[in-house]
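Hey, I was hoping to borrow your eyes for a little while. No rush at all, and the record is pasted right below:
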Amino acid sequence: MATTAHAPDFPRTLDAYRERLQRTFGYSQFRGSQGDVLDALADHDVLAVMPTGSGKSLCYVLPALEVRRTVVVSPLIALMQDQVEGLRASGVPAAFINSHIGRDEQNARYLEFIRGDSALLYVAPERFANERFVEGLRRAGVHLLAIDEAHCISEWGHDFRPDYLALGAVRERLGNPRTLALTATADARVREDIRRRLGLGADAIEIVSPIDRPNLRLSVVHVPNDAERDSWLRRYVVGREGASGIVYVGTRKATEDVSADLRRVGVRAEAYHAGLDRERRAETQRRFTLGTTPVIVATNAFGMGIDKPDVRFVIHYHLPARPEAYYQEAGRAGRDGDPAECCLLFSSRDRARQQHFIDQAYPDERAVRNTWQRWLEASRDRGGDLATEGDRLQADSDSEGYGAIVGALRDSGLLAPTGFTLLSTDPMAPIDTQAIEDRRHQAESRLAEMIEYAETPGCRRALLRRYFGEQPPPRCENCDNCLTDEEPAYPEELYASLAAIRDRTAARSERDALTVLTSRSIREIATRRPADESSLLEVWGMGPARVRWFGREVLAAVTAWEAAHPDAPRPTRATPRTPRLLERDRGSVAPRTNDPAATELYRRLREWRAERARTEGVPAYTVFSDRTLRDLAATRPRDVAGLLQTWGLGSSRVARFGAELLAVIAAD
């Protein structure tokens, strides 16, 4: 039986964390669920679902400063440098180890961590394949294991990564240290998968935060063809000259084509996708974080864990496959809390493109067996070990198809739980592909939800929040539909009643709710208000089996609503209107004041920050954020005590920059 690693006691109250929060980071209070997570860590492992931009990293950085020796698992090595730079700017002793640095430097950073000189060590999951690395950590004692983007461990998640599957065994070899698993999006099934695969006990605490980001304006633009898609994007990005933004596209080729098109109209845009060599990807991301390249055109390979807070827009040039991916990618905008825009370009042909990707991602039984037999052939001269072949296939893979095949072979007992060691030599060995088929059905239901997001005449934010299990108000007043004068053609109360029937039916049958009934079907029922089974059968997605299954409940809900609303207008067959994008302020968010002196001081402070960042070779936001600039311009502190009262200025930053800041302010 594994033993639990000895660690210093975690703080029993939040007082110590609050003091560090103010002194180190200059923040006077916790945001969202941060306090709940820190409180739970005192006695429990924690699985926390917190929206992008809610400050997840502080949930392990603050404990690391108390108990030291915290290992942070991050899936993308190119992000570690940015994360560590930001922490070091605040005086936090942190380091990262990845393949971009030399062996001697890796060893030096490892030894610093083992000695306790660094409080945090960032590593990618594949680092744990080195047994000596793991054994050294075990002997030293890991006090906190933080797993970022924890949804990557679940084959039901939207970004499954086979390397994450080894983390449960790694955690056990480390002595089951206190563990914090973090993700921005995970439904109940994915959360259960994370707990099971990490070996979190029954006493582990789940903290699921509301997903809403009110500063993000959501919109959809319907484009009839690719020419109009390109034309709209050019107009939009050119109109936001200098603003930082991400354009997500569906293919590698599109990253090159779209970025080249933007460059032709004077936009500093670069392409990013998994097929580029590692150095180019790292350099491109670095230029984006530094602000020298304001616009990145990327596949979904770009962005997980992106720490850049001043992204002012995220455009989805192509339809994403599922709401989880869309909301996580869109959530990379406005992490500083300032207004940002998230726009989806949508064509009715986008469904076919995504269905093609689903077919590739979830191969049929024949494709799985062909892969198994190919691996057997490749392993004959390698003693059953296919590490090289597995690495090549993973590197070449752009979809979930690789992960689905690996999962099926492991579930069937033909492939070792970690690595690529084959456990059979039988080319016709039984292979269980039921999990792949289940995931295909799930993927298709998620795609239907994305189509509904694009086509709904109702509140887009409410639709997303309902998808993630929340009960939102009917309007948000910050999406394109809510900002028009038109009302949805369906009553929100009836929609909510029908959604509740769907959820109860799913719970009774232990099925995924969206495979029981999609949001589009619920919308059409609420809009048409069918009076009998024959008219219910005319609703999109309602076949005879569903009508027999829960049709009576649906019709009863419609009848009850109409009885309670005898004066309601007759039901319609309204088609979705074409949404429009509402223009917003462009560029960075300046102080909202009529004081010309404050605006001029803000400009000079911003110039000082840009020059200081260039001198140090770091992104401007690691010096401090735009919000800090606005507070400085508004309050004009005249001494160190005043600087320490400014949002985002902790003691380390004041020690480094305070004299220069006071000089800039005094010159005002």
Observations:
- The first strand starts at residue 46 and ends at 49.
- Residues 356-437 form one domain.
